[in-house]
């Protein structure tokens, strides 16, 4: 059986992909920096081979990728160090090619588009990022697509919108879930009444694996859109209602981000991406659905219910 490896396995998308592989009874390799995190997350599954790597060391990367056929790349970097994205991609890609990896799936974002020029953004929308983060994501994608075009490896990119789900902390909505359960006011980045979309993380794993197994997937970009167009405000209303709490919010705009960013590096880095709150990128994923057929998307109501249930159980 072809060996699948997930680099950056201990993140939210890694959890989703790992869950689907576990259900299928398929052996795979989980690769991350932290051995303890790998053991905590996957150590109970005898079909998972936990391997640590040092992405700053080419030899370490090469060792981690030996014997792998399909590589799924979900490596994150600190939000204030996006310059690392193309650097780590180049190292990993070169090591993968040298190790004989045949297929490489990159999980991407909408950052590489810049401001949208159409109401529904398809995969052929111009990639003209005006932000530092978008430019680095664009470089990352171009490295993989160029390697594919040169016949060095089969590569594809799956772009996701914002996401949420059980245990997903790096989400615009994580604080809303926590505040609703605690009966407190939720801090949100506004405006919160503009169109938005969110993908429910447990849905992602099955799509990634179906894409990686499809011969028609390679050499281009794909979108996985959310379960419909909604707003942060409507999501918050549904979250508080499901939690049985009165909705209270504190909304921080761009000026507030800039001010608080003087003391908080994460908020400082959100300033340049604030355009996504006022000029949202709403994705069209009809191409993916034509390729794969039906794509399951958990409704927002059900995703909220399951996320709150998991948070209650964890508490």
Automatic annotation (TrEMBL):
GO terms for cellular component: cytoplasm. SUPFAM superfamilies: NAD(P)-binding Rossmann-fold domains. One of its GO terms (molecular function) is aldehyde dehydrogenase (NAD+) activity. It holds the Pfam family Epimerase. Residues 5-215 form the NAD-dependent epimerase/dehydratase domain. It comes from the Bacteria. This is Nucleoside-diphosphate-sugar epimerase.
